[in-house]
Specification:
By secondary structure, the protein is an all-alpha fold. It contains nine helices and no strands.
């Protein structure tokens, strides 16, 4: 009985979107791409993938003046944003501290840029989805009131207004999850940036102390 109800409701669900017209189609496409971006960013911006504990532990275990080869092997074996930034430090460890910092900051900005990939799309979609929904609603209302002389039935007019408002509902339905995801991922990237800076500074300090001995 429950399965029969789902089958019966499927055409109504499809009709809900079909009657929304062009703007509804755009919103559906945006929602699909947004979902793909959210899932992809959720996989990429995982703390244990960006800042693997094994790399942090190896850095903590490294002592000033000790050979860098064991640490370097760990970094090469565990590819991640943190590993690549720390490898950049090791590659330039013979440079003056100020120049090391410049080289590492460039590498870190590149890693942060990779993590932020796709977030601009979520930000833009958050802004335009309600506007597209409103445009769809207004477009529908213009059509309804333009034909009101031919079809003056109040019940049909009310039904048409209800269908037109569906675009606004979908527009907000696309924008709200995107806004939540955008703010969440942005905050995660900020945390990653702070942790990258902290770990990098620790390694540079240890290398500097080892060189001064």
């Amino acid at each position: 009985m429950h399965s029969m109800t789902l089958i019966a409701s499927a055409p109504a669900f499809i009709e809900f979107f079909v009657k929304g017209g062009f703007f509804m189609a755009v919103l559906v496409i945006l929602s699909i791409f947004s979902l793909a971006v959210i899932l992809q960013r959720a996989l990429v911006i995982k703390m244990d993938r960006v800042l693997p504990p094994v790399v942090s532990n190896a850095l903590t275990a490294y002592k000033s003046g000790a050979p860098v080869e064991p640490l370097q092997k760990t970094l090469e074996r565990e590819p991640s944003a943190l590993s690549r930034v720390l490898l950049s430090v090791l590659q330039h460890r013979d440079w003056p501290r100020a120049e090391i910092l410049d080289a590492v900051q460039t590498r870190a900005r590149h890693e942060i840029s990779r993590l932020e990939s796709g977030l601009v799309f979520l930000e833009i979609t958050t802004g335009i989805s309600p506007l597209l929904g409103l445009l769809g609603t207004l477009s529908g209302l213009v059509g309804i009131f333009g034909n009101i002389g031919d079809h003056g039935d109040p019940q049909r007019v009310a039904s048409g207004i209800s269908e037109a408002l569906n675009c606004t509902i979908v527009g907000l339905g696309v924008a709200v999850p995107n806004l939540i995801a955008y703010n969440y991922f942005t905050r995660r990237v900020e945390v990653v940036a702070i942790d990258l800076e902290s770990e990098t500074t620790e390694l540079i300090t240890k290398l500097s102390l080892g060189r001064n001995r």
